[in-house]
Design goal:
mainly alpha, about 250 residues, about 0% strand, globular
């Protein structure tokens, strides 16, 4: 009887492993178009970093440890010789502060994971993997697939790090990639993600509030404060509008 139970457990375990692998592969497959869109933008960042005097070996280290495209572009833009470290750190924290809200949204789905696995999942989180993971959960009746999310996240992570490194190496050959319009890759991806999360004009009212707050702040306040104001305005609007519907 014990042998039969062990064999049954092994079969169940192997089935669970296969299911997890299938979900990871499903995430990688779903992320492939976004991975492709990462390539030109990553090349732009790597090329710009070398033109600013950042060592080519440092670029993949920066993108691997930070993994936040917006803050990395800001850091490169602010880079001088010698660099203003405090300013760069402050702007990076400011721009990446949106991850606090994004992590809060994911926390109910990651609550059952061991702490080290939950922290690992959050480390690989970016705007695209966050949006794709939540969109997939909505399609599956609010069932969040952690393996799917990790498949998306890891695919995007290694694409970003690899091609920022390639951009640093090929920078002198590439020249200025923005003259080719390659910097439009990310906005296009975000528009596609918004389309996938669209629930109608009523649910999108908080998006509009966030947009107007961010644009207004960008036009009137120097620095990256528009990121924080847009995020906070969207959260407050979502809460107030939800209460009003009730």
């Amino acid at each position: 009887m014990r042998t039969e139970c062990n064999e049954a457990a092994a079969i169940v375990g192997s089935g669970a492993d296969r299911s997890r692998r299938d979900e990871v592969l499903r995430g990688l497959k779903a992320a492939l178009p976004v991975m492709i869109s990462f390539v030109p933008f990553a090349l732009v960042l790597g090329a710009q970093a070398t033109r600013k005097g950042i060592d080519g070996a440092v670029v993949p280290m920066m993108t691997a440890l930070n993994f936040g495209g917006g803050s990395e572009f800001a850091a490169v833009e602010l880079w001088t010789s010698p660099p203003h470290v405090a300013l760069i750190v402050a702007i990076t924290l400011l721009i990446n502060s949106r991850h606090i809200l994004m992590g809060a949204v994911l926390s109910p789905y990651l609550r059952t994971l061991p702490r080290h696995r939950a922290l690992s999942a959050l480390f690989f989180m970016c705007d695209e993997s966050w949006a794709m993971g939540l969109a997939d959960a909505r399609k599956r009746s609010d069932r969040f697939s952690v393996p799917y999310y990790l498949g998306v996240s890891l695919g995007l992570y290694f694409t970003w790090v690899s091609f920022t490194a390639a951009g640093a190496v090929l920078g002198p050959v590439i020249g200025d990639p923005t003259t080719l319009g390659l910097d439009m890759a990310f906005p296009a991806v975000f528009l596609v993600m918004l389309r996938g999360m669209w629930k109608g004009p009523v649910a999108a009212r908080s998006w509009a509030v966030s947009l107007f707050a961010a644009v207004g702040t960008y036009l009137m306040v120097p620095g990256a404060w528009y990121v924080v104001s847009g995020a906070l305005a969207g959260v407050v609007a979502a809460y107030l509008l939800r209460e009003r519907v009730r």
